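Can't paste images in this forum, so I'm doing it all in text. The chain is below; anyone willing to post the predicted structure tokens underneath?
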Amino acid sequence: MVTELFVYGTLLPGDVRWPLLERYVTGEGTPDTASGLLYDTGLDYPAAIFDESATTLILGRRYSLRIDVIDEALRELDIEEDTVDGLYTRVEVTTQNGTRCWAYAYGTGLDLTPIPSGNWFDRPPRPPQQFNS
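Text version of the structure:
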């Protein structure tokens, strides 16, 4: 049974959706990475495409989910991730330290900008949008 969650964006402490996750985890989490590519959606949240054969890494944290509420946690997170543009899907990934985790992978349909560092908090600024009047 997979009981860990790898997060790389708005579910990290200090970002907007951390309060959603915080009540379901134990401990402070562990810094970790997963193979794949990280993107900026331009909508104030990232998108990850996990690929265990990739040579690039996505930086994040791994959290142990509380066993007593793991089903509730995954159900709530699945609903939340499925409501954002791009329709994210929960997948199993193996982090660089060998831990099998749940993570949310990007679906489709958004204009993505690569984040070369693999770190959501180190993304390059996007150019301002131009609006025609």
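The first strand starts at residue 4 and ends at 7. Strands lie at 4-7, 25-40, 46-50, 57-65, 89-94, 100-105, 113-114.
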